[in-house]
Amino acid sequence: MKISIEEQVKQSKRYPWIAAHRGGPLSLCERQQLIRWARECVEHVLHLLGGEADPRILDALTTAKEWENGNASTGICMRKSLAAHAAARASVNEIHRAVARAAGQTVATAHMADHSLGGAHYALKAIKLADLDLMTEKQWQEDMLSLLSDRIQQLIMETWQEKKLDKRI
After folding, report:
1. What is the pLDDT of residues 74-97, one digit of tens each?
2. Alpha-carbon distance 80 to 90, whole Å?
3. Is the dihedral of CA 91, 93, 94, 96 positive or negative?
4. Which of 39, 137, 150, 156 is the most exposed place for a label (fewest CB within 10 A)?
């Protein structure tokens, strides 16, 4: 028996993260909240780059903000994500690499909302690599998360725990 695309979507582990226009539950407003939260998490650690940010990192964050405001396409976001990840691969500095990956994941949130977790996760990884207070940064992220809808907060917290992201920092 062949399963319809709609049923396949609902059976996916990623179903809670799928955009409404693709058959999932996430509204555009919720996706915009997620990309904003992830972007703010990355912007909060940009100081770790010491003013030497690869332009591809900043471009990815700018594009994420443009998408959030309805001024960039998902396709452009995906290209900026690939560029930020290329910046990560090109860097010899582990902290710069983590921030670049955070930016790449953040802008990729336009394509798939669960990439927002990667933005926050890699921002925390950068803090740890810089030997700064990880718990203070995690609390800051959670404070920013508390500004989002209850449904989004729950989705992020449940997925974070399910993926055991704290252990992977």
Report:
1. 999 999 999 999 999 999 999 999
2. 15
3. negative
4. 150
Q: How confident is the model at residue 6 (pLDDT cuts 50, 70, 90)?
A: low
113 and 147 Cβ atoms separated by less than 8 Å: no
The dihedrals phi and psi of 19, each to the nearest 5 degrees, come to -65, 150
Mean pLDDT, rounded, for 31-53 = 96
pLDDT score at 164: 94
* Cα–Cα nearest to 109, from 57, 46, 31: 31
